[in-house]
Amino acid sequence: MRERTLITPQSVPSLPSHIRLQFDDLRQKWVVLAPERVLWPDDVSVDILKKCDGAGSTDEIIERLAKDYNADRNVIETDVIEFLQDWSDKRLLEVHS
Amino acid sequence: MPAPGPPIGMLAELTHRCPLQCPYCSNPVELMKANREIDTDGWISVFDQAADLGVLQVHLSGGEPTLRRDLDDIISCLSARAVYTNLITAGVNLSEKRIAALVNAGLDHVQLSIQGATADVTELIGKYKNGFASKLETARLVREAGLPLTLNAPIHRHNIHQMRQFVDLALELDADRLEIANVQYYGWAYLNRSTLMPDLADVKEQVEIVETARAELKGILNIDFVTPDYYADYPKPCMGGWAQDAFVIIPDGTVLPCHAAQTISSLEFDNVTDRPLADIWENSSALEAYRGFEWMAEPCRSCPRKELDHGGCRCQAFAVTGDAAQTDPACILSPHHGELRQIAEAAVAQEPGEFNYRRIS
Ligand code: SF4
Ligand code: SF4
Description:
The structure holds 2 protein chains of 2 kinds. By secondary structure, chain A is of the alpha+beta class.
């Protein structure tokens, strides 16, 4: 049986092929299209999601975000992991470890 | 009234034809024959207009949408416009080849209905021989083709005892989501209300099982739960508000705010073969009728919950009170709330009668 994925710094998250992050020209907003759902992630969420490319680990994603936002990685780490865990629990993210 | 924002979702009932005969079918009691259906070019034009208008997700439904041979063309057209496509099927007539063609066309997701968690209940409801086995096979093929799967289980007194089995089945079939949807009583379901209505004890047990499964399966299976109106304290926010985010088109091209809206006999609807979709979305009298909050009477008008539930379902208000502008009687604040409970209790006190199966007359 499937098991719940727990996000660790080593997890490598990506959007499954049936979850689409795309820019909506009409509304000038990023949108996530998923089975029977449409989500409107805020700017920070979009930045995180764009980095979920199936190549970088959560640790590296945090590193890159800290750089982009000129933030202390220890400060953002918990938030990013929490976000990824939440999206994974909603089955919107795929994770390889 | 200010112009409405762009719609996000669209339910396209491509045909009313279906191999099954579910007695709660959400199609109207007066089913349309195939000769009233708009043709391929008609649908393609509608979907192009819908994409222009801002629609991001299209639910291809019926009847049984796969009975339309042009389904692949329809999906290709939507996928070329980056619109997310969801196929809602009963899954009794799909070969591996057909599924591959749908995937090729760009289909994003499949929602498969199951009438029971076992073969006997599935066949009792759908009246289709070997339906259950075909559905399981379809689920397998869908997953094998790499498509995400939702199982949709409409619930009533004949399968309300199968909650855990539905959950296990969803896991076994590697579904991404399970929708446990208590039947809503309009149209065919309204005709069969006394045969379908579950009793309160069963409903309470159901809620408990679903809540437990949900907590247990966090991150493993998404479970959506449509609670039963007749035992509710507050109504559901039907369609996210009348003509707010979504609309429905039925096989002949008529545009509705929700699939049951034709049960409201005072409304007049527009058709995409007469008027552009954008014009209908903005100006159709049926869509304007209960848009926003202006139409509301008390107790909804001054209620703090109105932004949440938009006063509930107009069709249910009409079915029970005869006036679609009333508060949905599922709401505890509606003066008709007690009637709903009485109807349910009277229904379950009877021995279930024969089903009035759906059929084209
Ligand atoms: S509810 Fe049953 S009869 Fe109606 S369209 Fe769906 S599968 Fe067919
Ligand atoms: S009174 Fe109207 S707005 Fe308030 S909870 Fe009931 S249905 Fe919703």
